[in-house]
């Protein structure tokens, strides 16, 4: 794996001479086994609570399992996967997911970088600013989605009120849920709002580890604050940038809560009257719990899993390339 | 004329533009939270007022009182339960993830990169269906309906391992680890005496993010704790919001009450985080 | 203060549980109750009028403890489905609504068959179609009916008055013998007040569909879009073209606000809707009244009590369910929340016939709804009726959003319905 620019650590130095045999054994045990002991808690807990559901899903995806037709249960081979290829709902959801993903990830990470850069200054009331940007992340999803559903309401909504102030939609208020473009913007707004501060904090904590002499050396080139950010700071914190790109790729492609709660009729999980903002995670939920086709839903989750893997890999490479060229 | 910047950003004073930008960011960040407070302290009519009402009402305590005395919601208990769940999860995550992050960043062992790749893979599993399998598993263990069912899957996180690995790789110099090894220190001692002190800022950040995530988690707790007398605060909040008809002032008063502990945590811990980050920077 | 004490104690117990890994079940067993105490968890949504009944039953049966769990309508059904798949964790007793009964009756072996619990004697007590709807194809009875949703039309007499329309319930009923009349009244109202008349096109579609002899599917599970669905769809399109719909999605925040802001003046009303109106707009007492619905009787909603087979106390649960559906309790529930019983004998009961609902301008709701329930034509619900309904409702919403012309909508609706039926 080469997602980061980690330098290879040197092999442990040879044991100091004149050690007793017991100590030598202990030392060898320490170098050979301790790393595995250190990572064991993660893998053991993951194997119990994470792996079992994945394997379970894999088995289910190869079966016919429709809750309302129990008599048809049985092995299906790859039938659920081949069905995916011709399912227009799936491709539509994939398109929506990517659209919302681009609208939310790109501004989110760029703004987070800029905000982190602003926070990385000598400021009055430093804690106040740093704490303030985390407020959206603290807000319970139940509360923020309620607030946003009122904000983007067609009648008496705050967003439409703002629009009416600048003279738009006086006659016919904008129905945010009706069209792809408006519903995507509304959902992306919710996602951006929640995660910008979180990413800014991750960037900020990385920026603080950049040695000051790097900046002092670069001053010779006459870099202004803007160029300083792009030419010095961003390349220096590149591992964390790659990290956040991967994280928001994963989060963005699994987007569920926001489109779900944004729907006029949340429990139908259709993502709008013509599926205009139905994401893949939402479609999986609908196929599994509304159409009661658990086998097909499991196949869809595996397809999503593979898509995330590929996209996260591509994005990580792209980010590294862009960062490396600068 | 080109502006010459010969100082690190953290030594540069913020200009008026910086403050202007940050003020705008803060307003946008805080408005929904503030508005939540406005509705939580108002009557029902305030929610759909145009122009929107922006002045808090006088009903906060009446609304809060309704929340805390609702039948079958157990709001007070839920706050305590959330403190227990979030604290245990945060402590375990910090310990286990920094251990694993250290191993992945600084120790060499066969299959290291392959195993790190597996850690990242685990992040990408969609969980819309996994819940049934998890519920079956918890049923076999007899944990459904207890806080243990919520705590156990949260004890480690791939995010935490990844974050810690990235941070340790840069914040802990190889030479320091090496020289300690030459002095004959065991790996565990290197972890406690060299790694832990160097990564305090990262621990503060990860700790805060984990605590908040555990506190605000609701999808899995809702399934395993539905209908029990031991809800977490988010489960209690969904109970508040679950009527056929949503009473905004009550739900948002509940949400407000469930957010206050986090804001207090941030006020107390926030200074530590800021200080921690600065110390970490000086060390370099 | 007492409340706080109990809550804190619960948290303490929770902490202990977390440390010892006990299950919730054993805790209830260890409680201060006498040994052999049985706890029955009852899951439902909204308010089913059980608070008083619970106290009454517990007093009469000291070894039984009833735990009520009310949640959101969809969430409760979904939770039940997940726990049936998982094989553990389902409540001892669960309410299931008409909208979900087909889904669960096709999993009949996951529920207690009331035929094994002396349920056969109940068949004659129920409306025949109510008894059939919860029965699986191989004759297993998964539930005993609680209420039915006979249809009437609720209207705002104050808004009618302001629009120069009659306000007396008999006079209002005479305004609309059929749905065309109804839409014309709506046009009059809208022309006069510049306000919308009905809440949404989907809430025209659903009651009209409920009045048809055949719904989406015939008894052979074949999709029949050209029968009842076409009739109902045309009515909803006419209403949308007439511009009398406020286009608010039911049971959503905007709809709730619509009540308060007088955004619509009529609402198709099954009996259980009365409680909802009362909760949503408590200050509109005396402003609502009930008239008959155009086009004859129909049923919308209504529930059953079921017992998931995975439970440990299915006999105690069956006893409690039988007690809940006994006439005295059914009448009690009717008086508390307005849910209309599904046993026709009760429609002759003076307690039902003489009952007047104060909130609805003292309308004789017992008489009105009993009459609609007895007259309605039963309709077969297909396996995929739920998803098909959502698909067609979405097409109506597209017309409301202006994305689709009403003239083109039917073809789209057929296509979407076929897709949903084959999913």
From TrEMBL, chain A:
Ranges in coiled-coil conformation: none
PANTHER family per record: ABC TRANSPORTER PERMEASE PROTEIN, INNER MEMBRANE ABC TRANSPORTER PERMEASE PROTEIN YCJO
Species the sequence originates in: Paractinoplanes globisporus
Keywords, sorted A to Z: Cell membrane, Membrane, Transmembrane, Transmembrane helix, Transport
SUPFAM superfamilies with a match to the protein in the record: MetI-like
InterPro entries per record: ABC_transporter_permease, MetI-like, MetI-like_sf
Pfam family for this entry, one: BPD_transp_1
Record-annotated ABC transmembrane type-1 domain positions: 94-315
Phylogenetic lineage: Bacteria, Bacillati, Actinomycetota, Actinomycetes, Micromonosporales
Membrane spanning residue stretches: 36-56, 93-119, 131-153, 181-204, 236-256, 294-316
Main location as per UniProt: membrane
UniProt keyword annotation of Transmembrane helix present: yes
Top-level lineage group: Bacteria
Membrane topology term: Multi-pass membrane protein
Subcellular location: Cell membrane
PROSITE patterns, A to Z: ABC_TM1
Family note: Belongs to the binding-protein-dependent transport system permease family.
Protein name: Carbohydrate ABC transporter permease
From TrEMBL, chain B:
Membrane topology: Multi-pass membrane protein
Keywords: Cell membrane, Membrane, Transmembrane, Transmembrane helix, Transport
Transmembrane domains' residue ranges: 20-40, 73-102, 114-137, 143-163, 190-215, 247-268
Alphabetized Pfam families for the sequence: BPD_transp_1
PROSITE patterns according to UniProt: ABC_TM1 (PS50928)
Entry's family note: Belongs to the binding-protein-dependent transport system permease family.
Record lineage: Bacteria, Bacillati, Actinomycetota, Actinomycetes, Micromonosporales
Source organism superkingdom: Bacteria
Record protein name field: Carbohydrate ABC transporter permease
Subcellular location: Cell membrane
Domain ABC transmembrane type-1: 79-269
Automatic annotation (TrEMBL), chain C:
Xref: Pfam families: SBP_bac_8
Source superkingdom: Bacteria
InterPro entries membership: Bact_solute-bd_prot1, SBP
TM region positions: none
Gene3D superfamilies, sorted: Periplasmic binding protein-like II
Name of the protein in its database record: Extracellular solute-binding protein
Organism encoding this protein: Paractinoplanes globisporus
